[in-house]
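Figure 2 data, in text form.
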Amino acid sequence: MSRLPRPVAIALLALVVLLAAYPLYGAWLFPAKHAFLMQKITGIMILAIMAMSLDLLVGIAGMVSLGHAAFFGLGGYMLAILSPEYEAANIWIVLPAALAIVAAVAAIIGALSIRTTGISFIMITLAFGQMGFYFFNDSRLAGGSDGAYIYVMPAVEIAGISLMNLEDKLVFYYLVFGLFIGAYLLLKVLLASPFGRVVQAIGVNENRVKGLGFNPDHYKLVAFVIGATIAGLAGFLGAAQYGFVNPAMLSWHQSGTALVMVILGGMGTIFGPALGAFVLELARMGFEGMTEHWLLPMGLFVIAVVLLLPKGLAGLLLQLGAKPASEPEDEA
């Protein structure tokens, strides 16, 4: 993955600073809607984490998945299942346990799914995602189709000393912000490593990678598990924020929304899907405020962006930020 052009890097850094400082200026700019907008931005950052994790599979490794929401929902359900009903769960126990379970399930699903490619891979991941949806929808585990409530936020404490109060919306905002930035940096470091280089090569030409002596299946499986685990983290945070989980978190609609974010933002860029999450959700909020038939203008908006920006928003930024090619010297 190439280094970002300086103008693009500066623009992204400015957006990160604005995001970090929102709680400071948001109350002044939007006094009546500040609490709502801070909660909304927190939710968008959680979706952005999921979108970046999906980009590792779709944009980098070339594995288009329609079942990624299964891991998002599973992360949320693990928080609901592992938490005491009316007591705060210890985050140092419940979070690693939830992510370990998501990773284990992803390893099993991934080991079966990577045996296929193309349309077959899309369909088998969709099938596994729907299996997860109907498992939680039809069983009595965690409330069935009605879902389950998480009455108390997890406790972040050591030896009985509270390090942060996640019930405080501002504290939770900055926790999600930190994990959002951390997930991006983790993926960037991963892709810059020898492992990441092989995964990127697989997305370009898997047969050539095999010809060089690498086993693509091993790398694809590890990438699949990493992407699923990060999605599980996003689901864990989403369940903690809203205090509720339901089977819709695992549905193919959720997977499709994440895939739209990846395509809208720009596949294979990591930062693009995060931008796609913000643009899609803010556009949704704007259209919902304009008309009750907001799905129509929303669909037209997505179609227009895809047609006009085939490489997504990130592709437009990279094009604008790229240095102009030097003109050829005149021949003597």
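Caption note: The two ends are 38 Å apart (CA to CA).
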